[in-house]
């Protein structure tokens, strides 16, 4: 009977090379990966640098010492570094008491030497399943602690038929199944998150975690502990070991959002991690391998940042194997109505209303508007309109275009007054009516701004 091998990493530790050889022989047609060592001192490195499902550990080393103390010692060490790894002990007939002691200390089962091949296989298989479910639970638990809902997957449907969007979607489909690092560029609300998630869902990692980290929201002091984790006692409040986001994403995808906001000194830390594919928890000396796909996103002009030496070029090269540009909504007018209809359907269902569509006038305005907040803004606008409308169709009264009065600065009209008015209006839009910020951006005082608002009747 031909069986498919199970994806699993098995670590075999025995100081007798013959035993290593025959254990491997017994198991190799069932599992994909084996690591063997006859030197227990290498166990810790191996276990930290690989995701080991099952460790088959000999109880007795150095011929002559049969008390098994050393086996127990290594057992404890493995448990500490990789609590999810299932540990099976190999022990000679007659040391059953020792095996019982080992199980008390966290081993899952023991295998008597010489073993029965079928029994050995059954124990290892059960061990692999156990490790899997434990790993899933730890990840889930950690994710719940982080209030990170990204683990609960949901497929987003990408809407868009414009050439720019079609191109972005076909690029996504091409690169998603590869393990290439991807940098997604686009203004706020253009769908960077949705794209990152979709790349993950269309990759072979789809059943593993997708971890979203908003670097823009991450306090600088927390950067390392959040991303790389920490050991108990690493700092005052570290009262227990904590797993970092990179480790959480093990086997899956990490989405580093707003990468452009990362200060230079943290950029170099991130670079080291990406280069070595290893993380070290704060306060710990063990390097842990991370098998993680990296997707980054930013709305900043990252190439300009590199030019201005605000972003490390070597880091950019690491993260932008593939660059995906998401077009602004104003540059793909064909998609506006399509998206508006999509949101209309969604929101009508949500608010239990039956609304047929948009008036002609509204459609024209939607298509002419410059959408500084892109798709997110459109979504909010439609939601709001659905809530307040009393009709069957959404009309101009149901919409509030924040820039109704604005005229984009046109170079064919260089009239100073008109340009000043347009500039002020864009500053107000940009800062959503926040006077202090708009004034600061314009380089004038708040009082001066109020005066001009009066003057231009804004
Ligand atoms: N192609 C699309 N089809 C349908 N909805 C979309 C599409 N792209 C984005 N959206 C919706 O638009 C909103 C904004 O998307 P998203 O959060 O991915 O943008 P973003 O670029 O990550 O924004 P920010 O930079 O502000 O974080 C979301 O509600 C998302 O569901």
UniProtKB/TrEMBL annotation:
GO terms for molecular function: ATP binding; sequence-specific DNA binding. It comes from the Bacteria. InterPro entries: AAA+_ATPase (IPR003593), AAA_lid_NorR (IPR058031), CheY-like_superfamily (IPR011006), Homeodomain-like_sf (IPR009057), HTH_Fis (IPR002197), P-loop_NTPase (IPR027417), Sig_transdc_resp-reg_receiver (IPR001789), Sigma_54_int (IPR002078). Residues 9-128 form the Response regulatory domain. This is Sigma-54-dependent Fis family transcriptional regulator. The modification 4-aspartylphosphate is found at residue 58. The lineage of its organism: Bacteria, Pseudomonadati, Bacteroidota, Flavobacteriia, Flavobacteriales. It comes from Polaribacter pacificus. Keywords: Activator, ATP-binding, DNA-binding, Nucleotide-binding, Phosphoprotein, Transcription, Transcription regulation. SUPFAM superfamilies: CheY-like, Homeodomain-like, P-loop containing nucleoside triphosphate hydrolases. The keyword Phosphoprotein applies. Residues 158-387 form the Sigma-54 factor interaction domain. One of its GO terms (biological process) is phosphorelay signal transduction system.
